[in-house]
Amino acid sequence: MNVQRLSPLHAATPSRIAIAALLAFAPLPVLGAEFDAASHIDAVTVFPDGASVTRRFVVDLPAGEHTLIVNDLPVAADPGSLRVAGAGEGRLTVGSVDARQPRVTERPDPERLRRLETLRDERLSLDDRISAERIRKRAAEALTAPGTLSAGERGLNVGEARLAMAAALEETLAADRAIREAERRQRVLDREIAEVEAGLRAQPPRRLEARVAVEASAPFRGELTLTYSVRGARWAPAYDARLSTSGPKPALELVRRAEVTQQTGEDWSGVALTVSTVRVARGGSAPRLGSLIVRFDEPRGVGGGAMLESQTEPSPRALAAPAPITAQDQAQRRGRVQEAEAEVDMSGFQASFAIPGRSSVASGDGSRALRIGSSAIEPELVSRAVPSVDPTAYLEAQFRHAGDAPLMAGRIAVYRDGIFAGRYQLAAATRDDLVTVGFGPDDLVRIEHQILRRTDGSSGIISTSKTEEHTFRMAVRNGARSARRVVIEDRIPVSEVQDITVEPLSGMTAPTARDVRNRRGIVEWSFDLPAGGFNEIRHGWRLRWPSDRQIRPVQGRS
Questions:
Q1: Which of 39, 310, 350, 395 lies at a CB distance of 3.0 to 4.6 Å from 442, suitable for a disulfide?
Q2: pTM assigned to the model
Q3: Cβ distance 414 to 255 under 8 Å?
Q4: Are the beta carbons of 58 and 220 closer than 8 angstroms?
């Protein structure tokens, strides 16, 4: 069954629907009937900053011009994003899709109305109870009436009269208690009824109503879809990293999940759910830079100098709503419990993950985590330490990201040989990027850090300059039964003034890398340490500056 798009003046084609949702057109004149279209949410595509929702509904229309009313859309729906498509037997032309908030008098809140009816019914039942108790009280009073006590030839004797009076007292007290309790409950109900009535009068509409103007040249029966965008939804990546070191080679399983949160005002129950990496709220183009203007600054008290002015125009914001992806993967694995994973669709500049089966996500503050993929990785293990800050060695697993779908930045929970080892933030990565995952302290690698020398002095016959020397020793021992790749980081001062120089000292251990990861002055030593092995690193430098100047204490800077 093919879906074609026709304008209202398109020539006839046999036995197929043609639908064109032309939002810019004025609504067609409604000459026929209005039909309430009961719809249900069928598919949802969630973005990091929004969602696209697709509803389905069945229509059975006679020939003529009609209006289809879908009255259960959330207020969060973007009216400008409404799109209609579908298929069926016959021909149907969509002239316009309009959305508005219904007036309170037209479509009041059904939940509040039901609550109001319940409260009023309870109050009426209390009126009945009060009337019954008053009859009971009058009957009790009749027991002590003079006519009752003196009835017959002799009337009641003293004992009978006392019993009648006691019974009348007991019944009267019980009736009074029941009446007071009912009246107290009625006062509470009156306050609740007033609050509900005030809410019905004051509350804004909680739903949107979509009115679809259509024209059927002949009787039409088919299924239509209504797609719209909402802002109150998002998904964020989360990861599990499970490292196993018990085998001959280390193995890493990286599981990616999508934590879906939505506060759109409608529950997604049993929908085909897809998560996409497209960010729909960032705008359609890069920011436009203004020119940098250099000019003399007019003095204003103390200070002055050249000024740079920059003006940046705000980027436009656009909302794209790609059609949801509904492909599913129902792979079954034997031998152990296995979580279902999403099917990945790479479409040039985006990645979409279709969650298998049907999913439900309620509107509210909570989130639901869904597994969308996993990969088995053979990582390189590194024990990394920064002894000048902390002598502890930390175990890291490093690998090159090989997937087409990018790793988005997100929280990662790490497990080391089945034991939870912590949680932190994973940096974003694309294909072939180096990914580093930390797994906590490596207690089998012991490191010592010593300050060997720190001296202040001067040089030159007439002391034209001052000097300062720092020397350190770092000892590394591998207490594991297997070899370790060890990386030690430290730093040397960076001079930003021409008269201050940093000189290497003789006899120091040359680092294997300088300015590590583009951080000025950061050096590292990388080496393989066999089981039970030992290595010593000596590190130091000399500072030199004019004797008539003072330098600030050496301090760290990223």
A1: 395
A2: 0.63
A3: no
A4: no
The amino acid occupying position 508 is: M
Rounded to 5 degrees, φ, ψ at 547 are -70, -20
- How far is Cα 63 from Cα 219, in angstroms, rounded to an integer? 5
Distance, CA of 200 to CA of 109 (rounded, Å): 7
The architecture that CATH gives domain 445-546 is Sandwich (2.60)
In sequence order, the β-bridge partners of residue 398 are 380, 436
CB 147 within 8 A of CB 155: no
- Measured between alpha carbons, how far is residue 370 from residues 358, 376, 379 in Å? 12, 19, 25
- List, for residues 421-433, the tens digit of each pLDDT value: 999 999 999 999 9
Question: What separation in angstroms does the CA of 487 have from each of 64, 390, 438?
Answer: 78, 14, 13
Q: Which residue has the tokens 């020398």?
A: 453
End-to-end alpha carbon distance in the chain = 62
Q: How many CB atoms lie within 10 A of CB 87?
A: 17
Residue 17's nearest CA partner among 30, 3, 33 is 3
Domain boundaries, the chain: 34-107+205-230, 110-202, 233-285+336-441, 445-546
The answer to whether 103 and 203 have CB atoms below 8 angstroms apart is no
Q: Could you tell me what percentage of the chain is helix, strand and coil, using 3-state DSSP and rounding each to the nearest 5?
A: 15, 45, 40
What pLDDT, on the 0 to 100 scale, is given for residue 434? 93
Distance from C-alpha of 397 to C-alpha of 39, rounded to nearest angstrom:
50
